[in-house]
Amino acid sequence: MRHRGWLGALALLVAAGVAMAQGGGGGGGGGGETVAYVNAKLITAARGAADAGEVASGVLVVRDGKIIAVGPASGVGAVVAPEGARVVDLAGKVIMPGLVDTHSHLGGVGAADGSGPIQPEVRAFDSLNVRDAGFRRAVAGGLTTLNIMPGSGHLLSGQTIYVKLRTTDAPADPREATLAGPAAQASLQIRTVEQIAYRWPDGGLMGGMKMANGTNPMRDAPFTGTRGKHAAAVRQRYIAAQEYVAKKQREAEAGKKAGGEGQAGAMGAGAAGGGGEAGGGEESKGASARDLAMEGLAEVLSGKRILHHHTHRADDIITVLRLAEEFKFRVVLHHVSESWKVPEEIVAAQKAGRVLGASAIVIDSPGGKLEAAELIFENGAALEKAGVNVCFHTDDPITDSRLFLRSPALAVRAGMGRAAALRSVTLAAADMMDLGERIGSLEAGKDADFVVLSGDPLSVYTRVEQTFVEGRKVFDLALPADRLYAEGGFGGGHDQSPYMCCAGGIASGWAWRSQQGGQGGQGGQGGQGGQQENGQ
After folding, report:
1. Which of 535, 429, 519, 386 is nearest to 114 (CA)?
2. Lower CB density within 10 Å: C or N end of the chain?
3. DSSP label of 172
4. β-pairing, 86-89 with 34-43?
5. Looking at residue 517, what is its pLDDT?
């Protein structure tokens, strides 16, 4: 009897998941229907709006995955539900923009390996498992956009990927739903990382570049063992990248010249037996071979790809600023445990266009590494006061994505302004990924990514009740299959690979050292090794 009862409960859970998957996640405003959400308190986080654009009772209108209107229900600038719209009454609830996480390690990401400390050719998205249950936990926490990064066990561990936690209209494979058990969700409709990736105008998958300094990348050869050698190795590679870019430009110019001269003198050259050598010179014989590593660094130098830089100590932060000024790249400073010691230097680099802001981490329990020993809760307040753009990140699994709203709440408790704290997980974070014109606030024309909360976002008692991406509901706490990821339980951790953050890469470290005959420095380098020491 006990077995039949357990199986029956499981079957109901599976059925709920399959129904949701086949229904595309439910909700509205994502497929031609106009939906008006009324009577909720709104936190728009709009740029320049006072008090983070909080509206006591407002209206949010969504159609075709976009916000078409937002504002108060009465008074100046009042918004009314359009005729024919489906009206959803959310009295007593709070609506805010979908949360944006600038630093996550979900999806079993494995990028750079133990072959060297600088590997810009490696792409994090080539290793992502889009069925990882961590993505379901993320939407359960109200997160809608992530910057998924390799770890910080290297000076440069590879290219990051920006993803939006959307679903699709494709039906789930019933065989897969059966195998997944209670994990049968709308997310099963996502088959590839390309379906959730943001894209640049040229169609390429959008992302940044991950770098680190301090103790994490400090290890035995072929890695570097001191802070001074860290900086020297990085400078040498960027100088090489500058030379590579200059060479490619010369080749392109020579090719254009050769093409023009070749057409003008083709008859004479052919008669003289000159063939296609009309342009003359070594470079006209053909372009040099592509170098994927140099191409990755070239995108950083051009400003296309933002540098996301792990750094803790004040002197390490200053080293990053020095390199940014020398090579003119755009950088977001991550973790920044001691940034409260050098806020003026950071804001000066921000005004110069080198620093986009600081993506800080908030840890509510003691421990971690020595270089983070002086991390204080007042960090966000100190940076805000100095004029630094501030956001927070999870560094999941350091902070579980379901608990992301605790970070701005703790920052407010330590003196940060409420408006800045609310933007720190929405618009400010989006800006640090070049996505601020598309997401991060509730404004007409932006993507309809938003969260419905049971109460104030900075209250420990508040629950994420629903999460919407492009107008489509991707999480609903009322559904048992979704509640599983919000609260935990059997089947809620499917398709996940351990990410040994801050433990010195114990598991993979053993494997790597055994492969190397017992050799190796801090944090092993097998499979995911070398990036296991990510956040703190």
Report:
1. 519
2. N
3. P
4. parallel
5. 34
Contact 47, 428 (CB under 8 A): no
DSSP code string of 140-166 = HTTEEEEEE---SSSSEEEE-EEEE--
Which residues fall within 8 angstroms of residue 78, CB to CB, at 6 or more apart? 59, 71, 72
Q: What is the pLDDT of residues 28-60, one digit of tens each?
A: 676 689 999 999 999 999 999 999 999 999 999
CA distance 99 to 423: 9
Q: Which residue has the higher pLDDT, 504 or 130?
A: 130
| Cβ 61 vs Cβ 70: under 8 Å | yes
Alpha-carbon distance of 219 to 295, in angstroms, equals 27
pTM of the model: 0.84
Between 455 and 499, the more confident residue is 455
Cα 271 from chain centroid (whole Å): 60
Average pLDDT of the chain to the nearest whole number: 84
CB 68, CB 61: distance < 8 Å: yes
How many helical (H) and strand (E) elements, i.e. helices and strands, does the chain have?
14, 17
CA distances from 447 to 30, 402, 421 (A): 10, 22, 21
- Residues near 437 by beta carbon (within 8 Å), at least 6 away in sequence: 446
β-strand 307-311 against 331-335: which pairing, if any? parallel
> Are 158 and 120 in contact, with CB atoms under 8 Å apart?
yes
Please, which residues bridge with residue 54 across strands? 43
Token reading at 91: 């009295």
Tokens of 392: 């927070």
Distance of CA 459 to the CA centre of its chain: 25
Hey, which residues does 391 pair with through a beta bridge?
359
Q: Note the pLDDT of residue 510.
A: 29
Helix (H, G, I), strand (E, B) or coil at 502: coil
Report the alpha-carbon distance of residue 444 to residue 459 in Å, rounded.
28
- Within 397-449, residue ranges assigned H as helices are 406-413, 418-423, 427-431
Element (H, E) at 94: strand 94-97
